């Protein structure tokens, strides 16, 4: 190891050089070190992080006296700092397979050369444009040591497509030199008779799909294969199968790899017995800023799971009961004396499709109660595979998805006309017009009418969205919204704006409530139920009719007045007109 | 009549928001109309409300902006400093990603 002693003389100097590189070069450096020295350094982060990573790796070699790796890194460094574009060399024949430790050192001498442009085009890229036969004895096993066995590329798992087997070799493109250079990649594949049979069956669940990724995600090194690759087609890309242009969406979201589904080759594939199929991908990597990339493409034979099947599976397997969800809501509802979370609105419409949710779905990790419609979500995800929660925009794992039984119970308890409900912090819910509500909320409402609990009434009142006009009320202010609290549905619907449906949601609770709340008089029960003639109205002055008072005691005289007008006028059209309160029912003065 | 008034005022604790640190109800509304109500003390910082809201809806606190009366809210402002009334509304905006100066 005499030689290796001398290797380390310039170690500090080389170490310093790393920090002098631009971010671009650093990334190239790391990429090459990963590829060629079996490292697993990340290429993301700030410059200093990149520098530190490389220097740490160098320190590691120093400690282990791994002069081979160090010499190699030094060569790469020299290469990077001297040549303007080291990248172009990476497509060369001498590009090394991952088995670096076993490779003789001589192989690296290439990198110390001034530039790599000298390679003849014919040798510079072994797999470019080569059509690959499906037969198992690949010609590349001899020619190119870096050719991977075909099954070794793993793409990010999708719930829609299960890769059964690749039907082609992994084709690799060369890196483009700049934004405008056109590249071409072709794949030839033959189908086995079994595959043909499966594909030609009516309503078959098998397809051929083109998977493509780039060197950003995939590399021939061990590290590159560690993570599944997101699907990334070149930014401008045209695919022809047997010279038929493929109309599939290859783009996904701009600059967001992994947002396009694998392209369905569909009917373009010849299923005839002898036919071999040829796929051409012509593309430009014209994304700015320009990042040199190689692209890898393979045709896979996949089994398709439809949206409907996936949704069905989730509905059957991932249903969480309402109790379970409620328990979690209550648990997360921690107390803070400064801020008390109040009610919030919960939309029964899917935030993506704006239709009423059929199967309420969300991730079990999401903290919000809002769900989305499973079928809508999966339909969108089939096209643009972002996997983002439409509510909180976090990336979801399909395995985390659950069907929310609590949300489902709300959906089942309300008719289709209800678009949203109000959810209290403790998980009880009701509609804004109080026609529908959870059992717990109904019970609470009954209790809250008891005069001994005014505070509760206050709170509930304040939290009604309709109570925006709630003002500090002098005695003269008339109660409208707050009589939602006294459970007098018969009255309530009277004062609802025209167009709202009349309904008597809680007829059972109405009568006892009235008895309790009207502790000053002895009229109400018979009144509301039998509609016999009421006692004289107590109050005569009714200004500010649309205002709201949260004060329960105020309700009684008012209610009595309303009740008597109520009893007399089934049409209820104008009970607000002052005359009604004087027991002069009059119809027709609509408000 | 006078009786009714007295009675009402006894029960009307909520309607005196001018008390120094009486909690007030605020409504936080997104552009899509989703609402969340909070009861906060008048000297509670807006940053805290924002944090509570972000946690509630599962968003990252960095990505949301609070607007009151159309003005962006600072972290240290409080309902008292903003002279908020009970029942006032705060609008939530989502931070803009992308774009560039013209």
From TrEMBL, chain A:
UniProt entry tagged with the keyword Metal-binding: yes
Biased composition (Low complexity): 131-146
Domain called SP-RING-type: residue spans: 335-416
Biased composition (Polar residues): 502-523, 577-591
Pathway involvement of the protein, from the record: Protein modification; protein sumoylation
Pfam family membership, one: PINIT
The keyword Zinc is annotated on this UniProt entry: yes
GO molecular function: SUMO ligase activity; zinc ion binding
Residue ranges of every copy of the PINIT domain listed in the record: 134-305
Species this protein is from: Dacryopinax primogenitus (strain DJM 731) (Brown rot fungus)
Protein's GO biological process: protein sumoylation
Protein name: Zf-MIZ-domain-containing protein
UniProt region (Disordered), positions on chain: 119-148, 484-591
Automatic annotation (TrEMBL), chain B:
Residue segments, region Disordered: 1-25
Domain Ubiquitin-like: 24-99
Xref: Pfam families: Rad60-SLD
Bias type Basic and acidic residues, positions: 8-18
InterPro entries per record: Rad60/SUMO-like_dom (IPR022617), Ubiquitin-like_dom (IPR000626), Ubiquitin-like_domsf (IPR029071)
SUPFAM superfamilies per the UniProt record, alphabetical: Ubiquitin-like
Xref: PANTHER family: SMALL UBIQUITIN-RELATED MODIFIER
Name of the protein in its database record: Small ubiquitin-related modifier
Organism listed in the record: Dacryopinax primogenitus (strain DJM 731) (Brown rot fungus)
